[in-house]
Write a structure and sequence with these properties.
Elements: H1 4-36, H2 41-63, H3 68-122, H4 128-131, H5 133-141, H6 146-197, H7 201-242, H8 248-258, H9 264-279, H10 283-308, E1 311-313, H11 317-358, H12 363-370, E2 371-373, H13 378-397
Antiparallel strand pairs: 1-2
Length: 419
């Protein structure tokens, strides 16, 4: 008969197994429910992105004694003004280059056909009869190919259904995301207080500390990615303009937008620029375009991103690629957009629990091991200290008592990271 120690171990083992099975069941149920209401996730994610983007501006206005509601509306007006001004600057240029692309499309098709013919001649394959418009039309009208054509049409119909759903999700994002962000920004302080009050007192300080680390890292990631995407888009457009590559604005804008997905912007932009340069008949321009986008990517990885994203969670390229693959397989475009920040948040939480519960580290030590903080330049630090001193004198003159909120005590104090 087993002794008491063996029984205890068996019970603990059974508890762990049942906990894992229960967690897996809960995740499965959550995924089913999330899939049934998937149309709300895209507006919610973009709304949260707007909150991370605008919250520092709203907080700065609140420190200037502007009511939070007024500051939130002012932040949205400023953002809307910037978007409208950008649209006025870019839309005519993009429209002009799109028209030029449509005009040049027959010539581009002829160039591609000539390339294929040259490649076919090198390998002893005659492709010319298959690439003319008349032969393509004859192939389509051939009854022997009707089954293949119907299958393609059927797949297109399925794709059209996905396209309609994508358009509906896009409209939902345009309408619901700003509204959700507006309400979340206004109620953010009260939501934080309510979440802290609902937490058991024994875990409240730790939960507030970890959640602050997560929100700091996510806010830095969102604002940094947007700023980096803007820098990459501008640098790509200017470089291609001086390189005299056709459709330089469209390629630069695509590079900037796709840079929101790690590794995608410079790679896709460089490939498009090289292809357009080759179709334009310049191998030298194609090689220079590849060199330029490689330099932009290296500058982004080693200079721009570390300076822009002051609080970063270090993730290896392999982890980022795996996260993008899993996110895309589970939730498509939405999964690709949120894969990296969710992985970073998961690493912060799991890393904190492991280092504090298993390794015995303090909260600050665990945070320093997971979050890399780029210090501000000394000049900016001095300006912020003078502003803080001026605000303190103003509050003292008005006889206001400012009591700082301490998250932890002793070695559990939070590192000075700007949210």
């Amino acid at each position: 008969m087993p002794n008491e120690t063996s029984l205890d171990r068996l019970r603990r083992f059974a508890l762990v197994i049942w906990s894992i099975l229960g967690a897996a069941a809960l995740i499965w149920v959550f995924l089913l429910v999330a899939d049934s209401v998937r149309i709300i996730w895209m507006p919610l994610v973009f709304g949260a992105g707007l909150v991370f983007l605008l919250n520092p501006f709203v907080n700065a206005l609140a420190r200037l004694r502007i009511p939070r509601i007024a500051g939130t509306f002012l932040a949205f007006f400023v953002l809307a003004g910037l978007l409208v001004a950008t649209g006025f600057l870019l839309v005519p240029l993009v429209r002009q280059q799109a028209t030029e692309f449509a005009t040049a499309l027959p010539d581009l098709y002829g160039t591609v056909v000539k390339w294929l013919e040259d490649i076919g001649e090198r390998f002893g394959i005659e492709l010319a009869p298959f690439l003319t418009v008349d032969n393509i039309a004859a192939w389509i009208q051939d009854p022997a190919n009707q089954a293949t054509i119907q299958e393609v049409i059927g797949n297109f119909g399925s794709g059209a259904g996905h396209l309609i759903r994508g358009v509906a999700e896009g409209l939902a994002v345009l309408i619901l995301a700003p509204l959700l962000a507006l309400y979340m920004l206004i109620d953010l302080p009260r939501t934080k207080r309510m979440a802290a009050e609902l937490t058991p007192p024994g875990y409240r300080e730790e939960l507030v500390f970890v959640s602050r680390q997560v929100t700091t890292a996510l806010g830095s990631f969102v604002r940094g990615q947007l700023l980096v995407a803007f820098i990459v888009g501008v640098a790509s457009s200017i470089s291609l303009y001086f390189l005299d590559v056709p459709f330089w604005a469209i390629i630069g804008i695509l590079s900037g937008v796709l840079n929101l997905v790690p590794f995608a912007g410079p790679i896709v932009g460089g490939a498009l620029a090289a292809l357009v340069a080759l179709l334009d008949g310049s191998v030298a321009k194609a090689l220079l375009a590849v060199v330029i986008f490689t330099a932009i990517q290296q500058a982004d990885n080693h200079i721009i991103t570390p300076l822009v994203q002051r609080a970063r969670v270090q993730l290896s390229p392999m982890v980022i690629v795996l996260a993008l693959i899993v996110g895309g397989a589970l939730a498509g475009l939405l999964g690709v957009l949120v894969a990296v920040p969710l992985t970073a948040a998961f690493r912060i939480v799991i890393g904190h629990l492991w280092r504090t519960r298993i390794l015995g580290q303090s909260w600050a030590e665990a945070s320093e091991q997971m979050i890399e903080v780029t210090p501000l330049p000394d000049r900016i630090v001095g300006i912020r200290r003078r502003q803080a001193a001026g605000q303190q004198r103003l509050f003292d003159t008005a006889e206001h008592a400012v009591v700082p909120v301490v998250v932890g005590a002793g070695d559990r104090s939070e590192p000075e990271v700007e949210a």
